[in-house]
């Protein structure tokens, strides 16, 4: 049974969220560090980053894998805005960009309070069009995933950008290394991973939750859950309000109270994940050198 090979059931509810006969499919192998998957339903394609190889790759069921963009400026996380355009975090440029319909690139944010950002990592778009992203220092710590540089921001922040006005505000400033982020389905909660344990095992390996006030401010920050194997990197929510997180041993699923209810084991350390496919019931997983997928019995909350 596929369940015995890849699924860990920690709560009976998890059994209703998976397809126990569904196996883990390896779609591609050959990356150095696969990150930032984003699904385009209108194009029936998955895009993701291979950061150290300076490229973005594309997978379609019909044609397999091809290069989408190279060089990529050490691009990491991606999402889409409400007009369907690609929003990307670039380590190399220390910026957040938008790829326009004609393929041109617009810089949305590269400085805060007059100084360069650290290295934008992951990004989500709220239903009002605002762009929320994290800015740890991973992309400037070495020349492997960016360009080594000293941080010029005093803190490693979570930002909110209003693309209509260009206003950029720091909505959380007390993280050590903010990483993946995701809204709850009703957008009243923002989850943000702190992956500082990646370089010091005594530092956080948890996901925090914040109440979203007036659609623009964060309050009541608290630890939502801890990752018991590895660190939390990319995270996503499903339509039922469960949170799915990357980890060293696979994908961990937590209910809305932060209780671990199950795991999908993956052979390589997982960096990120996203829901996709025509019904958003296919979980795409970037894991070190490979990209995997597995069908589930729920659907992703993120739009479009």
UniProtKB/TrEMBL annotation:
<feature type="domain" description="SMP-30/Gluconolactonase/LRE-like region">
    <location>
        <begin position="33"/>
        <end position="288"/>
    </location>
</feature>
<keyword id="KW-0862">Zinc</keyword>
<feature type="binding site">
    <location>
        <position position="35"/>
    </location>
    <ligand>
        <name>a divalent metal cation</name>
    </ligand>
</feature>
<keyword id="KW-0614">Plasmid</keyword>
<dbReference type="GO" id="GO:0046872">
    <property type="term" value="F:metal ion binding"/>
</dbReference>
<dbReference type="InterPro" id="IPR051262">
    <property type="entry name" value="SMP-30/CGR1_Lactonase"/>
</dbReference>
<dbReference type="Pfam" id="PF08450">
    <property type="entry name" value="SGL"/>
</dbReference>
<protein>
    <submittedName>
        <fullName>Gluconolactonase protein</fullName>
    </submittedName>
</protein>
<keyword id="KW-0378">Hydrolase</keyword>
<dbReference type="InterPro" id="IPR013658">
    <property type="entry name" value="SGL"/>
</dbReference>
<dbReference type="InterPro" id="IPR011042">
    <property type="entry name" value="6-blade_b-propeller_TolB-like"/>
</dbReference>
<dbReference type="InterPro" id="IPR005511">
    <property type="entry name" value="SMP-30"/>
</dbReference>
<feature type="binding site">
    <location>
        <position position="233"/>
    </location>
    <ligand>
        <name>a divalent metal cation</name>
    </ligand>
</feature>
<dbReference type="GO" id="GO:0016787">
    <property type="term" value="F:hydrolase activity"/>
</dbReference>
<keyword id="KW-0479">Metal-binding</keyword>
<feature type="active site" description="Proton donor/acceptor">
    <location>
        <position position="233"/>
    </location>
</feature>
<feature type="binding site">
    <location>
        <position position="179"/>
    </location>
    <ligand>
        <name>a divalent metal cation</name>
    </ligand>
</feature>
<feature type="binding site">
    <location>
        <position position="145"/>
    </location>
    <ligand>
        <name>substrate</name>
    </ligand>
</feature>
<feature type="binding site">
    <location>
        <position position="121"/>
    </location>
    <ligand>
        <name>substrate</name>
    </ligand>
</feature>
